[in-house]
Every structure is written in C-alpha cells, then in structure tokens.
Design goal:
The complex is a heterodimer of chains A (about 160) and B (about 450). By secondary structure, chain A is an alpha+beta fold. Chain A has helices spanning about 1-35, 90-100, 105-120, and strands at about 60, 65-70, 75-80, 120-130, 130-135, 140, 145-150. In chain A, the strands form two sheets. In chain A, strands 3-2-4-7 form a four-stranded antiparallel β-sheet, with helices on one face. Chain A has a three-stranded antiparallel β-sheet with strand order 1-5-6, with no helix packed on it. In chain A, a hairpin with a 4-residue loop joins strand 2 and strand 3. The radius of gyration of chain A is 27 Å and the shape is elongated. Chain A starts with a helix and ends in an 11-residue tail after the last strand. In chain B, the strands form two sheets. In chain B, strands 4-3-5-6 form a four-stranded mixed β-sheet. A two-stranded antiparallel sheet of chain B has the order 1-2. The longest helix of chain B is centred in the middle third of the chain and has 25 residues, at about 190-215. The model of chain B is unreliable at about 440-454 (pLDDT under 50). In chain B, helix 3 packs antiparallel against helix 5. Chain B is about 65% helix and about 5% strand. Chain B is built from 24 helices and six strands. The chains are: A alpha+beta (about 160), B mainly alpha (about 450). At the A-B interface, helix 1, helix 2 and helix 3 of A face helix 1, helix 6, helix 7, helix 9 and helix 10 of B.
C-alpha cells in the first residue's frame, strides 16, 4: 500500500516536472525567436526590444510632426490626437504614418472619425515637420518642412473637388 | 550526466517555497494595481468606438476568442477570426479577472485563480494592443503570471496552505510546529529562474538590436542625446531636454546602458552579481522614466525573482533587536484548546524569520521559563509571552508583543496601539477567551477544566 502510494507520488512528480519543463522550454524558445527573428507583435507577449536602436550623429534633426486638417472652405486647423480620441501612439502609428505614406484609403476612417466628433468635414490633410537640430551646445529650431499633403475627395479635371 | 539530468538539476533543485509565494503576492498585487488604475470605462468605450477597419486582433486574442468565434460563426479560417468584444464583454472580463486576482493574491484556490487572472489580463492587454500599436512593458509580467499558474506558488503564504495547516493541527489535536522559510520544493525554483532568463533575453534583445542596427556608433553620445530630446519634448520632461545638452554625461550613460543590457545575463549565471545588477537596473528604469517617461515599472516587481530577501530580513530584525539566536522569546499557550492551537498556528505562519518559540503547556510546562511565578491555571487562562531575561506579558499584551516579532503582521500593531487599545484590548481578549471555555465545542481536557472551574 505504502509502496504503491510512493510510486504514484513519484509518477505525479515526474509528470509535473515534465509539464513544467514544457512550459520553460516553450517560453524560452518563443522569447528567443522573438529576439533573433523579430515578428512583433505577432508573438505578443513574446517580443523583441528594438527601441531607440538607430544611431544618430551631430547635426541630426529631431522630427516633430504636426497634422493639419483642411476643410471645405479652405480653412485649416491643427489636428491633435485628442480630436480623434486617440492616444499619442495610436495617432503616430495611424494618421501620421498614413499621411507620410500618402495612404488615402487608410486615412478615410480617421477623417470620418474626425467629422463625426467635430461636425466638420475634412477634404484634405497635411503633415508638417517642425524639427529641432541637436548639437553639444543645445537645441535649435530648424526650418519647417511640408512632408505630404493629401486630398480626401476625388478631384475633377478642372481641379475642383467633386 | 545526461542532458535530461542536467536540465532537471538546473531547473528543479529544491528551493524555499516562500520566495515563490512572495513573488506571487508581489506580481499579482502589481497587476491588480494596474487594473485598478485603468480608466476602464473610458478606455473600453473609446476603443469600442473606433471603426472596424482599425481593429487588427493580435493572434493571442484570436486564439482566446476562438471558442466564441467558432460557436457564433462555425468553423472559419484563422485569418477570418475577428471577434470584437463589446464593452459589456470587456467589463465582464475585467471584473472576473479582478476577482480572480484578489483570490490569487490571498491564495484561495490559488492555481485556478492565477490561471484565470493571467488569462484575463492577457485578454484585456491583447485587446488594447489590437489597434495597430503595442508597447513592451507588460509583456514579461503576462508571461510570468501564466508560468506562476502552473507552479506551486500557492503552497506557502496562502489561505489554502494556512487552512491545510490548521486542519492538520486540529486533526492531530496539537500544535504542529513548522518553519515556512525552510520548506522546500523541487518545483519552487523554475518559475523564478524562468523570469530571470526572460529578463536577460529581453535586455539582450535591446542591446543586440542597437548593435545590429548601429554598431558601437550607438554609444557616440549623440544617439542618446537625440532620443532624450525627442522624448523629453514629446512627453514634457525637462530633465530629458536638459540631459540632451550634456554630451559627455550622455556618452557615459550610453556606454553604461549598452554594457548593462548586454551583460545582464551574468546576473543569472552568477547570482552574487544580482547585488550589482538589480540596483543598477532599478536606477536605469527610474532614470528612463524621469528623462523619457518610458514607464517600465513592470520590471521592478520582476526583480524580486533575483533577491534572496529572507537573510536580509533576518539581519534587519537582528539589527532592530527583535531576533537574537538562542534568545528567542517564547509563547506559552494551552495546547489542548482548539482556539489556542489555531491562534498559535496563525502566529507561527507569519513568523517568517523564526523569531519566536512556541511552548505547549501540556508538553513542556512553564517552570523552565518562568519558574513558579505564574500558576498553571493562570497560564491556561490566557496566552503568555516570555523573553529570555524573564520579561512576561499576558493576554492582549502578550499577543501585541508577539506581533512585534512577526513583520508581516506589523500593520495590525497600528490598531493595537491606538488610544484606549489598552483599555478595550484586554476586555476583547478576555471575552474571546471566556467564550472559548463556554462554547465547550472542543473535546479536550483543558476546555473541560475551564468549564468545570467556571
């Protein structure tokens, strides 16, 4: 009786160790894959950590993107993440990146979101960079650049919005 | 030694359960805190209002919602699993997760609670990251919570364990002494070691990506100046903006960061180095937060997996004069009364640093400690606390004195030192002690003695 209980306990302990080993092995393999063959975020929560990886040099400019919305009456306003109820990163990876690429189709849901929230129809968007240059003497504002402008509505052959 | 034996020897050597249990409490408490400060309603309704075109569920979220997808839409292709939880579903998951977290924290049905808590936390976090942006701080803690759910994290410092000990003591009809700090298990070490290796891999990933992308140019000083300025302006950190102008200092910080991240694994291979790496790591993340507002707070609790805090606790108590080897104060209790056995078992449960001894009157008798100063009948009436130099406290005051030697119960001391506590405390104690005798629920002689006397 005692011997069989002992054998049963040893068996259960062996099973638990095997199960734990499988967890350890899986976690380490998945984390290693994430590190050495990054596919973020497909393996989330197993991620690589490439933040701040690109080297910079003296004189490089720190970008500061501003998004401007253009209305039907040609007036303009700066669009902030709060206007779309987005946080900084969702704004950065959403409208800002799409504007940089000129991806009009992807921008349309955001434009619609803006129209719904602000009751103003957007017909165009513009992305500007207001950079700062870096030196060991301090920070200096550099000239503003227009990165991209997109029209959100089809334009006819006369250049008028339809 | 073959590979399997080496593996077992490395991951499954006997370690104190109390370290694993303490990590469970700290990790779960931290994640519960994160859930508590979450602007739940705002975040859920904000994300739910976003158009479907912006919803790209992470694979793990698709996996977790597969049963719902399967039940509602039948067998569909993996790529078509796009179940999007409503605000009500998110609210439900939140509260179930929260409740499971509380149970996991106190250690009630610990493993199932931990599993539910980890799964719910992953579900919610994966949902937040299914709108085209994701961040890194939470990832390691999520993996750790899942690993803990499959470990014996509830076999110490838990209601489950305490109940088991109380039941055992009452079944045997005597106080069964134990030392929580010495209780070991071959399954107690792997979750902590796994956390250590995952942290090492994460830091190594950060160093590797810097070197792969930029080589040692990354540490030219300008790189970190750039990022300090960028994040300093973006998140409004004056410290970051100021630092971005300090080239030499930032150059030095760049090298320190690279060395720290690239060599952190040494703290896993040579545990003594953790004494250096953990404070440096804590300063590193605190500095990053102050200067760049990158909130890697989740790593602070995870560092506990490196810290053998029991010896440090013993040294601190010795320094406070509460623990001297060979001069431990004794608790004299009536070992034939269930209520006394329960109380002493609970006190012993929180005596992590082994500062007290527990003497059953029926087994040892009082004379070796306090001679004939107090009669056996008086000793049976209430608990006595006796120090090596003959200082004696009894009843409420004995209990209060004992709490001083059990750091996890120190918060209770605040209550016991409130004004008038010395008036009401002994009365409450006396009432409880009297009810113990009157109940006559125990089947032991001592209760019969009390009852007979009264």
């Amino acid at each position: 009786m005692r011997a069989s209980t002992g054998r049963r306990l040893a068996f259960l302990r062996g099973v638990t160790i095997a199960r734990s080993s499988l967890i350890i092995f899986s976690c380490l393999v998945l984390q290693s894959v994430a590190v050495f063959h990054p596919v973020s975020p497909r393996l989330w929560p197993f991620l690589d950590y490439p933040m701040y990886g690109r080297a910079r040099y003296e004189g490089d400019a720190v970008t500061r993107y501003l998004v401007f919305g253009i209305f039907t009456d040609a007036s303009e306003t700066r669009i902030l993440p709060e206007d779309l109820d987005l946080d900084f990163w969702k704004f950065e990876y959403g409208p800002v990146q799409m504007l940089r690429r000129g991806d009009v189709e992807s921008l349309k849901p955001y434009a619609q979101l803006y129209s719904d929230r602000q009751n103003k129809r957007l017909v165009g968007l513009r992305l500007e960079n207001h950079p700062f240059t870096l030196s060991d003497q301090g920070v200096h504002a550099a000239p503003t650049q227009v990165v991209n402008s997109v029209s959100l509505e089809p334009v006819n052959t006369n250049g008028e919005r339809q | 030694m073959n590979l399997w034996k080496r593996w077992r020897h490395y991951w499954f050597y006997p370690a104190p359960l109390i370290y694993l249990a303490a990590c469970r409490i700290v990790f779960v408490a931290f994640q519960l805190f994160q859930l508590s400060i979450l602007d739940r309603r705002g975040e859920f309704s904000r994300l739910s209002a976003l158009p479907n075109e912006l919803y790209f569920p992470l694979p793990i979220l698709r996996l977790l919602t597969f049963p719902v997808e399967w039940a509602t839409a039948g067998a569909v292709h993996w790529r078509d699993w796009h179940f999007r939880p409503s605000v009500e579903v998110l609210e439900g998951v939140y509260w179930v997760t929260y409740a499971a977290g509380v149970l996991a924290l106190i250690g009630l049905k610990t493993n199932p609670s931990l599993f539910l808590f980890a799964t719910g936390s992953i579900f919610l976090q994966a949902f937040f990251y299914s709108f085209k942006d994701f961040h890194h701080p939470e990832a390691l803690l999520m993996i750790t919570l899942i690993a803990l759910a499959f470990s014996p994290a509830g076999r110490a410092l838990s209601i489950d364990d305490l109940r088991r000990r109380l039941a055992l003591a009452l079944k045997r009809r005597k106080f069964v002494n134990f030392d929580l700090a010495r209780r070991r298990s071959v399954l107690a070490w792997w979750p902590l070691l796994l956390v250590q290796w995952l942290l090492a891999l994460v830091y190594f990933s950060a160093a590797l990506s810097k070197l792969k992308t930029s080589g040692f140019d990354w540490a030219n000083g300008y790189t970190l100046q750039y990022y300090l300025l960028q994040d300093g302006m973006r998140w409004g950190s004056n410290v970051g903006v100021w630092l971005s102008g300090q080239h030499t200092l930032v150059w030095l910080m760049s090298w320190m960061s690279l060395i720290f991240e690239g060599t952190f694994f040494l703290a896993v291979l040579l545990p003594a180095l953790a004494l250096v790496y953990i404070p440096v790591g804590a300063s590193f993340h605190a500095g990053i937060y102050v200067a760049m507002r990158a909130p890697f707070f989740h790593y602070f609790p995870l560092y506990l997996a490196f810290i053998p805090w029991l010896p440090a606790g013993r040294v601190t108590l010795r320094w406070l004069g509460l623990s001297e080897s060979g001069k431990k104060p004794a608790i004299l209790f009536d070992g034939q009364c269930p209520l006394c056995i329960r109380s002493v078992t609970i006190l012993r449960y929180f005596d992590w640093f082994d500062c007290l001894t527990f003497r059953d009157l029926e087994q040892y008798g009082p004379s070796s400690l306090i001679g004939d100063q107090v009669s056996r009948q008086d000793l049976r009436r209430e608990m006595h606390f006796v120090t090596a130099d003959g200082f004696v406290q009894k009843g409420f005051f004995a209990f209060r004195e004992a709490l001083k030697y059990t750091p996890p119960l120190w918060p209770l001391l605040v209550l016991l030192y409130l004004p008038f506590a010395t008036v009401f405390g002994p009365k409450v104690y006396g009432a409880v002690a009297a009810r113990r005798a009157r109940w006559q629920r125990c089947e032991f002689d001592s209760c019969a003695v009390h009852s007979a006397r009264q």
